[in-house]
Design brief:
This protein is of the alpha/beta class. The chain is built from ten helices and 17 strands.
């Protein structure tokens, strides 16, 4: 029976949120192939396998006390793949996934399709992946017909989690643990985490190159704090150094589905639209009346973004403004 595998990325003693999306899409593909769903857990915390077994038919566990490195995890994955020969292997489009997946693909001599927003199986059982290319101007379908496993990384937030199953089998694979490597981890220090992450945010306010300066982006961040919103950015703002890459919204960044999305100085390139088009309400502010973002917006404001942000900041700073705003969040 052909297997679809997902790489179950963990963060300490919990699974990364993207694992739910991988399990959901992996199950759909496995059913289309008439096969089964497997999850690979390479982690010091083997107990996470019980959670995975609620969704996957088989969980392959490589329990190793070493902290994560691409080196030992790729070696473990390759040993498992060469033994079990899965048909498809999916990774999340996280920092780790984008580093680990190409390493594994190169060692196996197979292809890798990155940042997929849609997957399907054709009549011949071939994985077809769709993603924007050429700066978001084209949608391309890519396949890897000649080599196995067929590998892909999934854009974050683009896929729905799957339902629980009947309970899968947990298979310990100590034989897949690699020997000592050349890389030694001297220490680990977690990056500071925003108190309002993009994933799952009810309100997102995002800035683009049209803001004009880092100072104006800082103003947007002030407004976000008053609004209780998560902050995002377009590729142009990230490339300008106004925000870290973790805040990128779009094809190669986060995909969000907030109740309210405010786009300031964002033109509306396809690669950005992919990441926010499912928002319930979209407010666009841009001085260019022909900006493509207005075609998608629920409400459009043609004007200066800085002036808009200053006005909004002033309104939100009024006594009672935040309380009044929060009263309607559950309506």
């Amino acid at each position: 029976m052909r297997e679809v595998w997902i790489y179950a990325e963990s963060e300490g003693e919990r699974l990364h949120p993207v694992v739910g999306e991988l399990l959901g899409e992996g199950r759909r593909l496995a059913e289309r192939l008439g096969g089964s769903l497997g999850a690979v857990l390479a982690s010091p915390h083997g107990s996470l396998a019980e959670e995975l077994a609620l969704f996957a038919d088989r969980v392959y566990v490589v329990q190793d006390p070493r902290p994560y490195t691409d080196e030992w995890q790729s070696q473990a994955l390759i040993r498992l793949i060469e033994d079990r020969r899965p048909e498809i292997l999916l990774f999340g489009g996280t920092r780790r996934g984008k580093s680990l997946a190409p390493r594994v693909a190169a060692r196996l001599g197979t292809g890798l399709i990155a940042d997929c927003t849609s997957l399907r199986i054709d009549e011949d059982g071939l994985l077809l992946a769709e993603l924007p290319t050429f700066g978001g101007r084209l949608l391309t379908t890519i396949a890897c017909p000649s080599h196995r496993p067929q590998m892909a990384t999934l854009a974050l937030g683009a896929f729905a989690p799957g339902p629980k199953g009947a309970g899968g089998e947990i298979i310990d694979c100590p034989w897949a643990i690699p020997g000592p490597g050349t890389m030694k981890v001297l220490g680990q220090e977690p990056l500071p985490v925003d108190s309002r992450p993009l994933r799952g945010a009810e309100i997102v306010i995002a800035g683009g190159r049209g803001l004009g300066s880092r100072a104006n982006f800082a103003l947007l961040e002030e407004v976000a704090r008053l609004l209780g919103a998560a902050v995002g950015a377009s590729r142009g703002a990230v490339d300008a150094g106004w925000m870290d890459p973790e805040g990128l919204i779009g094809q190669t960044g986060a995909i969000v589905r907030p109740r309210l999305y405010i786009a300031c100085g964002i033109s509306g390139a396809t690669q950005h639209v992919v990441g926010m088009q499912r928002a319930e309400v979209i407010v666009a502010v841009n001085k260019d009346p022909k900006a493509p973002i207005f075609d998608l917006a629920t409400y459009g404001i043609v004007g200066d973004c800085r002036q808009f942000l200053l006005e909004l900041k002033g309104r939100l700073a009024l006594p009672g403004a935040v309380d009044e705003k929060n009263e309607g969040q559950d309506d």
